[in-house]
Amino acid sequence: MSAPTISLEGLTSATGFDELLATARSGGCASSTCGVAGKPEDMDPAVWDKIKDHPCFSEEAHHFFARMHVAVAPACNVQCNYCNRKYDCANESRPGVVSEKLTPDQALRKVIAVANEVPQLSVLGIAGPGDACYDWKKTRATFESVAREIPDIKLCVSTNGLALPDHVAELADMNVDHVTITINMVDPEVGAKIYPWIFYDHRRYGGIEAARILHERQMLGLEMLTARGILTKINSVMIPGVNDEHLIDVNKLVKERGAFLHNVMPLISDPAHGTHYGLTGQRGPNATELKALQDRLDGGAKLMRHCRQCRADAVGLLGGDRGQEFTLDRIAGKDTYDSSKREAYRQVVAHERRDHVAARSAAIGMVKAAGSGKSLLVAVATKGGGRVNEHFGHAREFQLFEASPKGIRIVGHRKVEQYCVGGWGEKATLDGVIAALEGIDIVLCAKIGNCPKDQLAEAGIRATDAYGHDYIETAISAVYATAFAIGPLAATA
Amino acid sequence: MAFKIIASQCTQCGACEFECPSVAIKFKGEAYVIDPNKCTECKEAADTQQCVSVCPVPKTCVPA
User: Which UniProt keywords apply (chain B) (predicted)?
Assistant: First the structure.
C-alpha cells in the first residue's frame, strides 16, 4: 500500500499560481471576500506573524502548512515513565518513535528533499527521539546548515527543559521562534511519580530531588524564553490518577510565566511499548476525560486541540505522515534546494486564507448569534486547506468540531482505518470506523456511498456529502442552522 | 580496569559518548565501544561512572 497522501492533492503537482488557485477552490465555492485580514480578530499582529505558518502553534495554519521533524537528537537526560528508549516500530505514531536516526548532514539532505517535494513545508523541528537541548551539538549543527540553505524555514525545538536554560541565548541567536517544553508537573511530589531519574551536572538524581531540579530548570527556561519573546508551547501528558487534576495548577503557573499555548495530550501506555506505565498497567485517559479536562482549562493559557502526538520523524500536514516517502534510501544524494514550489504555494495560501478567515468568521458569528443554546459534534473528512474535501472511504482520520453558543472550534480528531481501498469497502473496517465515530452527531465529507451512509444511520450517525468542498466552518454553520431551524447563512466563500 | 557496553542492549543514543570525561567512547561500525586503554572508570573525574549514570537502559554499561 502506498504512503498516505493528505496534502492538498492538486497543489503538490501544479506549480503555477493560477493553476494552484484553481485547484484549491475547485467545487462549491463562489464568492470572494478579499481585503479581510488573515488573522483571527483577537490576536496581536506581531504574534500572529510568528505563528501564521506554524501548523502546531496555529490551528488555522494547520490546514495549510506542514512540518517535518529530523531525528538528530537521540540522547536524553531525563527518564520518563511513559517513554521506553529501547523499542520503536515503523507503524506506530507516537512521540519519541523514529525509524532511523540522522546525522546533521543526513538531516540537511532530508530537509532539502522534503522542501523540494512538499510545498506546504514551513517548519523544521527537532523533537527527539531524545532531547534537542541536551543533544545540543547535533541540534545546533542541523539548524545552522538548514538555515543557510533554506533561510525562510521556521525552526523549532521540543525539550524536557532540563538543559534548556543553557541554550536559550543560542536559540534566540539562531532565530528559533518556537519552543515546546514538556511540563507534566509543578509539584515535585507529583513529579517523583512520573520521572524515575534525571542526569544533571554529571550526576544521576532520583526521587523528589530529581523532580525538584527538573521543575526549577523548566520554570527558569520558560521565563528566559518569555523574556526574549520566543513563543512557548507547553506539552503536558495527562496521566489519570497521577497528574490529571494537577494539570489545572500547571496551566495556571505556565500561563503566569508567559506560556503561549498549552497542549494536554493523553498518556499512551500500550503494554507492547514496554514503558514503565505500560508494564504496570497505568491507563491513559479516554477521549471524554481528556476533553473534560481541556474544557476545564479553557480560560487559562490558550489550549491546543489539534495535536496528533506525531512521531519524532514525522513529515507533512499534521493529519497525514509522509515520513515513509523520505527515508534515507529514498532521497537523492546531492539535491539542491529549489524554492519554486514553496513560493508558489505560499502565494496561493495567502490568497486562499483571506477567503477562509472571512468565511470562517461569518460562520462562527452565525452560530453564536443563533442563540439556540445547543451544541453539535461534527466529524469532518478533510485533506487540508480548511475544506470538507476528503471522501468518507478514504479518510484516515476525522477532525472533530464542536458547534455551540461559543462558536465553532476544533476539539480533537479520531483516527480510523481507511474503509475504502481500491474502490471496495470492507464491512469489518466500516464497523471499526462507526465505533470510532461514537458520540458524533453528523459526519461531513466530500463523497459517501449509500451503503456506508445507511450503516452509519443505523448507528444513529448522520452523514452527508452535501457540503463537499465548502469551507469546514461554512458547512458546519449550515448544518447547525438546519438542525436547530435557524435561517441559514447566505453563501460565503 | 575499564567498563564495556553490551551492544545488544544499547539504543545507540550516544549520550555516553559525549558525557565520557576520558573521551573513551566512540561509535565504531555498528555499535558504541569503550576503549579500555582510555577508560578510567571516571576515577577522579566524577563521583559515578558517567556512562552508567546517563545510560537509559539498565545493565548496559558494565564492568568489563
Answer: 4Fe-4S, Electron transport, Iron, Iron-sulfur, Metal-binding, Plasmid, Transport
